[in-house]
Specification:
The protein is mainly alpha-helical. The protein has one domain. It is about 80% helix and about 0% strand. The longest helix has about 35 residues.
């Protein structure tokens, strides 16, 4: 197989990893107003992702760098056309990161609430806009003969793009709540299980609609991997239902694993529906960016492949080790003892 096609799927896998890992960070951040009844419980929630959020976030940097090196035409069109949306995501991520680092610097309740609000906003905005961006890539955007985006931010806020955005928002929200249930104890854990139950119905509705709408788009342009998209969509739906059932039974680990599987196969549904395009043009199909006309040279892709073969396993091992080190639950007793020691 041509290396350009291999790298199309490698970039897809990197975004899958990012959405699974930073997805539960976003969900945990969005859950603060619902699960954080007092400062101790809010610290419990934040501490579940405290050791790993920045490591999870690096996946998008790697994905962006690989996109730039493997598909420079795609990168140029995407980052120039989606500039405002991506800028909003970047600002939100900065606000969230700053909040994690500065929230504990003062005992003032007002100070902490201000940064908690930034964490919520900094989690909500990317969870929504990443879905809007990916949805528009799959659906197609107005491109001219020079592969330049001719729309605006409002162009991206179309029905399908917003539907995908709300779907990713809900999937990440539920994914993060499952993670909190898995990593905490006491009232926070019980509240997380209850919140996940309340989110189940809207999440299932939007996810089902997203899969069906995406498959309709793929069928409309005779996507060569249509049946693979169908398969991924079915697996995503089954995984979501399994996660809901596991949460109802109080099986936090199974709910989280099935929720992660839902995100994996939901993103793969979108990615396979996009193939062999990387940015379809809604202006004229002849103006579309494809894997072949957007990729780098074979020499560049060969060097990148060897680098990926050597370094990617090391990165995965390091991340797995990090999660193993911080595998224990964040208990309320531990937070209370830490707070008492400070005072």
């Amino acid at each position: 197989m041509d290396l350009a096609y291999v790298w199309f799927f490698i970039v897809g896998v990197l975004f899958v990893g990012y959405f699974v890992l930073d997805g539960f960070d976003f969900g945990a951040g969005m859950s603060l107003p619902f699960l954080g009844k007092d400062d101790i419980s809010r610290r419990q929630i934040i501490n579940t992702i405290g050791p790993v959020w920045d490591l999870n976030e690096t996946w998008v940097i790697v994905a962006g760098a690989c996109l730039f090196a493997a598909f420079p035409e795609w990168y140029a069109t995407l980052f120039s056309g989606f500039y405002l949306a991506l800028l909003l995501i970047l600002l939100a991520l900065i606000a969230r990161g700053v909040s994690f680092e500065y929230r504990h610097q003062r005992d003032s309740l007002k100070w902490k609430k201000g940064f908690d609000t930034m964490i919520v906003i900094g989690s909500f905005v990317p969870a929504l806009l990443w879905g809007v961006a990916v949805g528009n890539i799959v659906q197609g955007v107005p491109l001219d003969a020079d592969h330049e985006f001719t729309g605006s931010l409002l162009t991206l806020l179309n029905p399908y793009g917003l539907w995908v955005g709300v779907t990713t928002l809900l999937l990440f929200f539920v994914h993060g709540v499952y993670f909190i249930g898995l990593k905490t104890d006491g009232q926070v854990q019980r509240d997380a299980q209850t919140l996940a139950k309340r989110l189940a119905i809207p999440t299932v509705i939007f996810a089902a609609g997203c899969v069906l709408w995406t498959l309709a788009i793929a069928a409309g342009r005779d996507a060569p991997l249509f049946w693979l998209s169908v398969t991924c969509g079915v697996v995503a739906a089954v995984s979501l239902l399994i996660s809901v059932a596991a949460n109802w039974r109080g099986r936090d680990g199974r709910a989280f694993a099935a929720g992660a599987g839902t995100i994996v196969f939901a993103v793969l549904t979108l990615w396979t529906a996009l193939f062999p395009y990387v940015m379809p043009s809604s202006t004229d199909p002849a103006f579309s960016l494809t894997i072949e006309n957007a990729s780098s040279t074979d020499y560049t892709l060969t060097i990148m492949t060897w680098a990926a073969v050597i370094f990617l396993p090391l990165v995965l091992l390091y991340q797995a080790w990090t999660y193993w080190v911080f595998r224990k639950r964040v208990t309320r007793t531990r937070i209370e003892k830490a707070a008492a020691a400070v005072h």
